[in-house]
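A reminder before we start the practical. When you read a complex entry, don't treat the lines as separate problems. The point of joint prediction is that each chain is placed relative to the others, so the output describes one connected object in space. Small molecules and nucleic acid strands, if listed, are placed in the same frame. In the example below there are two entries. Take a minute to note the order of the lines before looking further.
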Amino acid sequence: MTHRPATLSAIRTLLANLAKADDAAMHGAVARNGQLTKPPGALGRLEDVAIWLAGWQGTDTPRIQAPQIAIFAGNHGVVAQGVSAFPPEVTVQMVANFTHGGAAINQLAKTFGASMTVKAIDLDRPTGDFTQTDAMSEADLLVAMLVGWDAVDPKADLLVPGEMGIGNTTSAAAISCALFGGVAEDWVGRGTGVDDAGLARKAKAVRDGVARLTSRDPLAVLAAVGGREIAAMAGAMLRARTLRIPVILDGFIACSAAAILHASAPSALDHCVAGHVSAEAAHTRLLGALNKQPLLSLGLRLGEGSGAALAIGIVKAAAACHSGMATFAEAGVAAG
Amino acid sequence: MTHRPATLSAIRTLLANLAKADDAAMHGAVARNGQLTKPPGALGRLEDVAIWLAGWQGTDTPRIQAPQIAIFAGNHGVVAQGVSAFPPEVTVQMVANFTHGGAAINQLAKTFGASMTVKAIDLDRPTGDFTQTDAMSEADLLVAMLVGWDAVDPKADLLVPGEMGIGNTTSAAAISCALFGGVAEDWVGRGTGVDDAGLARKAKAVRDGVARLTSRDPLAVLAAVGGREIAAMAGAMLRARTLRIPVILDGFIACSAAAILHASAPSALDHCVAGHVSAEAAHTRLLGALNKQPLLSLGLRLGEGSGAALAIGIVKAAAACHSGMATFAEAGVAAG
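Here is the predicted structure of the whole assembly.
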C-alpha cells in the first residue's frame, strides 16, 4: 500500500515510481481471448479494453462491479476576464444539483450502476486570476490534489474523475498550451457557449497566463494556471494508479488533469482509457498529445465526467464479454 | 392494433401505410430539452436520441426499461461456393451457445438488462444456393418474415434484431448490390475472416446472384438472394414499426434487412437508429445508402446483434438524462 503523500515532493516521487500492469494477467487474457466463441478480432476495441483491464485488475478474467464517479468542483479567478457564458454562482448551484440527483451525471451513474462522490473545494475562495497572479500556492495545490487522492474508494474497480467549475476550459487551455505548445487559439473553444468576443477574451487570458509562467514543470504549471478541481482530478488519477484501479478519462478538462501526469512521466496514463472525444475542439488535439484514442464520439461537451460515464457501459461490456463468454471447447463450436 | 399479415401482399400494404412518430411528444421533448440543467446542446447526440425516442414512445419523457434482443439464425446454400471461413455447422453450434448463455450477445444482454429471444429457422434446410436458384420461395419468405414478426415482444420498449448464419455476409452483399448498385467488390468483405481467394469467391457469388435477378422489387430481391434470418429481421423491424417500438440497427447483415424496408418505403426506417458501424467495410457504404449515422465505431464485426446491443447503453443513457434531469427552474440554477 502506498502512503498518502504529505508533500508535493512525495507526489513527484510517486510519479517517478509508478505501479505497473500485471504482465502475466495480460498474457493470460490474450490467450483466453483467442479461445472465445467468436472469430479472431471480431469484438474489435472491446478485446483491447478487456486485455488492458486484465493488466490493471491483475486477473485474466476482469470484471467491473463497482465503478466510481468522483466529481470535483472549483471556482476560478480568471472568470473576471469574461471567459464564460455562465456566472460563477453556477458552480455551487450545480454542486447542489449533483447532491439532489438532478444533473446529467446522476442519471448516467444510475444507468451504469456507478457510485458517485462529489467534492466541492473551497468554492467561496476562487483561485487567483491567472492572468495576474498564480492560481494556487503550492500549499493550496497540495490540498486540492489530496482531496482527489482521498476521494478514491479503494474498493472501486473503475474510476471516472469528473469536474464542475465555471471558467475551467480556460484553465485547461492554459495548461495544455503550457505543456504542449502552440498558440492560445489552438487550445481555446466555446466551452459552455461563449460568443466570438468571449472566445477572443479566452485566448488573451490563456496567452497572458502562459506568458507569466516561470517554469514548465508540470506541477508548477498546475499551480500557476490550473484549478482546484483539476488538481483534485490529477490526485485521484494518481491514487487510482497506486491502487491499480483503471480510469476512464472524460473531456478536455479531465484530460488537462491527465496531461499533468503525462508530462511528469510518459507512462503515467497507462491505467487510463479515453472515454470520449468531446465537441470542445481542443480535446481532439489534447487526446493526440496524450496518445489516446477515444471510445466514443457523440458530440458531448458537458463535463461532469459525463462522456467518461457513458463509456462505463462500453468498459463493462468489454469485461463481461471477455470473462463471461464460453470458449470454443466449452461450447463445442468449431473454431474455423 | 395492426393485424399479422397473412400474405406478402399484406406486408406490401403495411409498408405503404406506416405508423408515424408522435409529433406532439417530440415537440414536448424539444421544449423539455431546452430547460434541462446543461448548456444548450451539451449532451450532443444524446439529445437527438432522446427526442427521437419521445416521438416513438409518444411521451416527452421516454424511458428504456424493457429492451429486447431478438436473434434469428438461418443457413445458406451459397456456402457451397466457399464464401465463409467457418463451416455451416457453426450456425447450429452457435445457437446452442446462445441458448446456454455462452456467446458475446448473452453477456451484452446481461450488461444492459435486455431480454433475449433466439429463433433458429429451419437450420437443417438451408436456403437455395442463390448463384444457381432462388434462395427462398415466396412461401418460405413469408414464413421467415413472420418468425420475425411474431418474435417481437409487444411490451418491449426498444428492439435489437440480431443474426447468426454462416455465409450471410454474402447474402447481405447481394441484397445491397441489387438495391443500391455498384459492383460486387463494393459490397463484399472478409466477414468472419475469409482469405483473398475466399473474398474473390464471395464477389463472384454476389455477381452471379445479382445477374440472376429478374426484378429489383425489394421483397423479390430478398427471396432471390436473401436468407431466412435476414427476412426475419426485416419482419421484426416492420412489426416494431407497427407497435412504435424504436429499433437499434446492428451491422452489415441487420442493415441489409433494414435496406429491404428502406427500398420499399423511404420513411420505413424512421423508427431505427444505427447502433454502430462495423469493421466490415461495406457497412459504412450501406449506412450511407440508408442515411444513418452510427452511434458507435469500435471495430466490431461479430453480428449476433452485438454492436446494437452495445448501443443499448447509449440509448438508455439518452432517455435517462432527458427524462431524469432537473430543469433550471427545479434546480435553482442560473440559465446563463
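Discuss with your neighbour: The mean pLDDT of chain A is 96. What might explain this?
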